[in-house]
Amino acid sequence: MPTAAPVLFVSDHVDGSVHVLTVPDGTVAGRLTGRHLSEHAGFLALPGGRVACVDDRRGELLVLDPHGDGLVELAVPVAVPAEHLACDPSGRRLAVTTGLGRNTEVWSDLLTVVDLETGEAARVRTRAGEPGVTVLGGDDPLLVLRHREPGALAVHRFADLLAAPPGCPPVTPCSVLALPDDGHGDAQDPVPGRVFAATGEGVHRARRKDGTLVAEAVIPWDAPARGWYLRLDTRRRALWSTLRGGAPDPLRWPEWTNHAWRHDLDTGHTLVTALGPGLVFRLALAQCHTAFTRIHPDGDELVLLGTDGAVRRCPLPAMDGTPRRGGTPWEGVQRRAVAASPGSGWIAVTRGGHGEVHIVDAETGQEAARPRLSTPLHHGGHVMLRTRGDGADGDPVGR
């Protein structure tokens, strides 16, 4: 299914399908069925416009190539339920951590590492939890696990993990760097070999020095809130997050405050922009805009923050089964997923439960198409927008 147009991957992880749409017309260019992708591990951008993801039901890491003769380029068995997915800056060495899945308690301590060039793969045991992961490159790549309770950054040599014998043996990290217990959110800046972890204190950062990590000064949030999500802006060398404030009670989610947080990695300058109350979580990075979706009982909207600081708010049609006042925003409700490509000005937003995708021009805020898919897109599904050579693979952490 070769195509030169921007490509949108749309996953319904409940119904078990992946649609591939051309953008902006929304034409279905390909489809996979019987594939239940991990929404939490998300999509990972690889060189050449490809993406990696994990099928939680079959226990497979998939490499999808919308520009090849067949959509599935490679399938490698991995341990599940997949929690986080990352690769080294070359896109060759991948890691999949396991976590909670649909269980009430975390039960798996398995980590899978894969070399896409040689086809080698290995599984080892680390520590039960919900670990984040980054893979630092170079001649001797390092895998860094971000653990919680107790918090730590645990460093492993990728080559040692890949050479582990069969039987999922336990492994001991080469070194450990202490973190607060509430870490949630990971990013890597491949240029200096630096990793970032979001905590209540701020963004902890550490840089590689030989075969270990050296802690650096914490980046403060500069707001009475914290971020639970980190993302690297490959075009503008910045870190992004969404800061959530207010009462922690999930029943009071309509009162939660939300701010876009941007930290320039070269200047150290931080910019905080108000987004409005309600539920805002993941974000998407387009050519000249950063996109957020805001869910609220008084109306949902797509919020577009331009590189010039201008904010555009685009109303979105209501969803059936949307979170309500007096209930939580997580259980048994519909949500929205958002996607963009740093090489494009298009934004895609899902309408959970309706099977619809809004394709929006970020420059004008106008909807160009609204394709309706063959599945409802339960919980909003999950999406990724790629253009060949867009540089999105410069962010080597799954989203």
UniProtKB/TrEMBL annotation:
Gene3D superfamilies: YVTN repeat-like/Quinoprotein amine dehydrogenase (2.130.10.10). It comes from the Bacteria. Residues 372-399 are annotated as: Disordered. Residues 387-399 have a biased composition (Basic and acidic residues). InterPro entries: Quino_amine_DH_bsu, WD40/YVTN_repeat-like_dom_sf. This is S9 family peptidase. It comes from Streptomyces xinghaiensis.
